[in-house]
Amino acid sequence: MSGRILIIDDEPHNLNILRIFLNSLHYEIFTVEDGTEAQAMVKEVMPDLILLDVMMPEITGFEICKSLIAEPDFDTPIIFLSANAQKEDILQGLRLGAVDYLTKPFDLDVLERKVEIALHQKAKIKNLKKDNKQLAKLVYVDALTGLYNRAYLDITIRMISEGTKKFQAAMMVDMDYFKDINDNFGHLVGDQVLREVAAIIQSKVSSDHDLAFRYGGDEYLVLLHNEANCVEIANSIIKDVDSLKVSLAPNKMQEFSVSIGLTNNFDPTCFEQIITQADAALLGAKNSGRHQIKIR
């Protein structure tokens, strides 16, 4: 098994023994003797496992462990190595969040097995996190367009009301005459158009700050972090959809368009009102001849 192991110990003799032994098992080894540099070293190395001495000057292994565990994204297993075999010390180390506690002098065969188990568990957790991300994508992303779906919109609304997500404008984008597209060219063409328009919308908004949803059918909702350029984004979407051409048969292309309703009256305490205003603006665009932007 491969893995990156960081050894934190102020005794050079112990470090050398561990480094030589674990190197022989084909692990990638990093060492640090100064406990005050441990946290910086952890961030630099990003190890899969930490072997941590308890008794060190200036800062103890227990204090280092407590500080590391307090980091929100820290998930590296820690094994304490200590000459202190008192039951209370062992329990304290485990209570702090270490996966194991080995007393010195330790048996190298036992250490090998403990390291193997800890790295195996780390790999399992990593795979589970990867699987969870994939599942979240399936749950919260619309399968056809790749945009967020209504389930994730519900979560977003809650985050907006709690103040953890902030937006300044909302945009409703709706295909013009989409029923005619399905009726005249079939649902496969309609689906292709929906995907193409979704890709255009996604390319126009900030992936870091804005969110785009398939709101329903041929309608999209975009939440914009900054209202200053919302009209520019809307115009850019209309322009790119105007340029969208889908091949229906040899030498036959079809053009498409969208209407957009905008609101920058964004009250985080009443999301229904935001949707109502964006919908009303969209309806105004439709009633005025489609293929345009209305702001409310």
UniProtKB/TrEMBL annotation:
The modification 4-aspartylphosphate is found at residue 53. SMART domains: GGDEF, REC. PROSITE patterns: GGDEF (PS50887), RESPONSE_REGULATORY (PS50110). The keyword Methyltransferase does not apply. InterPro entries: CheY-like_superfamily (IPR011006), Diguanylate_Cyclase (IPR050469), GGDEF_dom (IPR000160), Nucleotide_cyclase (IPR029787), Rev_trsase/Diguanyl_cyclase (IPR043128), Sig_transdc_resp-reg_receiver (IPR001789). Pfam families: GGDEF, Response_reg. Residues 166-296 form the GGDEF domain. Residues 4-119 form the Response regulatory domain. Its EC number is 2.7.7.65. CDD domains: GGDEF. GO terms for molecular function: diguanylate cyclase activity. Keywords: Nucleotidyltransferase, Phosphoprotein, Transferase. PANTHER family: DIGUANYLATE CYCLASE DGCM-RELATED, REGULATORY COMPONENTS OF SENSORY TRANSDUCTION SYSTEM. This is Diguanylate cyclase. The lineage of its organism: Bacteria, Bacillati, Bacillota, Bacilli, Bacillales.
